[in-house]
Structures are given as C-alpha cells and as structure tokens.
Write a structure and sequence with these properties.
The longest helix has 21 residues. The chain is an alpha/beta fold. It has one domain: HUPs (Rossmann fold, 3-Layer(aba) Sandwich), CATH 3.40.50. The chain binds zinc ion (ZN). The site of zinc ion has 7 residues, from loops.
Length: about 325
C-alpha cells in the first residue's frame, strides 16, 4: 500500500517510495513465492482551494475530489502517475491497482470500520490530535459546493445507534447542514491524516488472507508512533499492529525535507545539488522507461543493506546515485 497526496506534480521522494514498493514486492515474490500486488492510494482529499471565512475567521477547503470529480481524478492519476507505474510493473512483473481515497471512504469496509471505532474514539483522541484532543472529521457540504471547515471547529458527530452516525457542520455558503453516515452511504468521510491512517489500517487488518504492508517515507515515522498509540488505545495488541516499510527521505543541504511547496511558493531556492526533475519528475531528462530503470537500480542499492533505509539522502547524493550505471557494484 503506497499512498500519495495527489496535489501537484510528483516529487522525487514520491517516485522513490513508489519504486521501492514495487522493488520490495518483486523481492517478496522471488524469495517466498508469494503473490504480490502494489496498491496505490491516491489521496484526492488533499486541499485544492483554501479560503478564510470572513464571518467566523475559520479556514475552509475544497479538496481535489470535490473540485475535479471522479473523471478529473482518474485523468490526473493517469497523466501523472500511471506512466511510471506501468513502466515499473512491466519491468518487474508486479501488478498494481489504483484506488482513490474517495472510492475507499465509500466502501462498506471503511465506513463500518469508522462506525465501529467511533464509540472508542475518546480513548484515542490525544494520540490522533495531540495538540487539541479533537481528531478532525470533515464532511464536505453536500449541496454540490464541497467546501468544508479545514479544522472542523463546528463539526459535531453523534453516534445514533449501531451502524449510524449523524454529522452536523457549517458551510461557507449554505450555513448549517447535516449528513447521515451509514455503512453503505451518506456524507463523504474526510478524516485528518492520523485519524484516516488509523481507520485505513484497521480496515486493512480486517481483510483476511492478505498481509498489507504500508510503504511510506521516513518523514511519516513520528506520525506512525501516534497511530500505533491510537490503535492500542482502541484495543489492538502490539502484535496486531500493521506492517510498515519506511523508505529514505530526500533532504536539502540544510537537512530539511526537499520540499516542493516551499520552493514553489518562493520561500526557498532550489537547493545545492538538486535538479529540476526532483521537484517535478515530468522534467526528468529522458524517457519514463529510463527513469524507471534508474529508480530500480537505486532501489537495488538501497535494498542491499537494511542500514540504507534508516537514513536520509541529500538531493546531491540522489543525483549521484541516479547516475550510477545499471548493474554496477553496490557500493
Ligand atoms: Zn455549501
């Protein structure tokens, strides 16, 4: 399982995590004869527009899913991500599937999991929202406007029996509204990151016969400790916690994560040693096939020793590693 916020162009760090997911799946298949599949979770609940409501001063957001719609999200994933996935899949013989978050939140499994954990949420709330104690749930306005209060200040959730919850909130344009959540329908469930990961992982554990491995960048490591705390607060034992694989992070020369948003907003220049394609992989100076080959070569280097995973790599080092000839010794 490899999830990515689909806001903007893919970033080198994202491509690295995705290629590591494919490379690791291929190794598991080769070593243990297990059937493997990469599942790409396209987080289309990422904010597309953000405004401040002049009346309340609260921030409001419209997510990609609400702005682009199902076809728009399919096109976006098809343009930005599928070419690399197709190349990786073809080279390794590892199949993949794409699921948008919008589709996942609509599944009976996800909604039942959320409804089941709701009565125990109080025990987990400080894990999921350490600063406020209130894990955010956004249910965008149903009157086809799709705005939701970013921090859900005026969103209330009430469990109304087994398999039924009522949510009330306030729209930027339409005022107060209500939504009903059932396992098969009702309002769109947009959960804040830690909260969403808890529900997603609980749902994954409920799928029998499949071991789901969450593949993430190392910047998610502190977050996963909080999610594990939440899991245990709602009743999991440590042995039931999900399997995760953390991939190395790409950092600027300051040691901070190579951030496309900071650079794009003009707050930082392209760091020393970084190349334009690292912030927008469509600028890779070659074919997608060559990009996939380089990434898999790099994955081979990183997989040659576990210690390579518990490190970050500078943009300059990434540049060097991506230019190492294919099949050269793993040094
Ligand atoms: Zn509205």
């Amino acid at each position: 399982m490899v999830g990515t916020q689909i806001n903007g162009a893919p970033h080198a760090g994202t491509s690295l995590v995705q290629s590591m997911a494919f490379a690791t799946a291929a190794r598991l298949h080769d070593r243990h004869g297990l059937p493997v599949e990469v599942r790409f979770s396209a987080l289309d609940n990422a904010p597309h527009e953000l405004v401040t409501d002049p009346a309340s001063g609260h921030r409001y957001q419209q997510a990609y899913a609400q702005v682009l719609g199902t076809d728009g999200i399919t096109d976006l994933v098809g343009n930005l991500y599928r070419p690399l996935f197709d190349a990786l899949s073809e080279r390794l013989g590892v199949p993949y599937g794409v699921e948008a978050y919008s589709r996942q939140q609509a599944t009976v499994l996800f909604r039942e999991t959320w409804l089941r954990v709701l009565p125990r949420l109080d025990a987990a709330r400080l894990w999921l929202a350490p600063s406020t104690g209130v894990p955010h749930l956004r249910v965008p306005c149903p009157y086809s406007c799709g705005w939701a209060e970013k921090y859900a200040q005026r969103t209330r959730v009430e469990l109304a029996g087994r398999g039924l919850a009522h949510v009330s909130a306030v729209c930027l344009h339409h005022g107060p509204y209500k939504a009903t959540i059932t396992p098969t329908g009702g309002g769109y469930l947009d959960l804040a990151t830690l909260y969403r990961n808890m529900v997603k992982e609980l749902a994954a554990l409920a799928e029998t016969g499949v071991l789901q491995v969450m593949v993430k960048g190392a910047d998610w490591m502190p977050g996963s400790l909080l999610v594990d705390g939440a899991h245990q607060a709602v009743g999991l034992t440590p042995g039931q916690l999900p399997a995760r694989l953390f991939c190395p992070m790409i950092v600027a020369e300051t040691g901070a994560k190579l951030s496309k948003s900071l650079i794009r907003s003009g707050e930082a220049a392209l760091p020393a040693g970084a190349e334009p394609w690292m912030l927008d992989t469509r600028k890779w100076p070659g074919t997608v096939g060559e990009f996939a080959d380089r990434l898999l070569n790099l994955a081979g280097l990183l997989l040659s020793h576990p210690r390579h995973f518990f490190r970050s790599y500078s943009a300059a080092e990434l540049s060097r590693l991506m230019s190492v000839p294919t099949g050269s010794p793993t040094t």
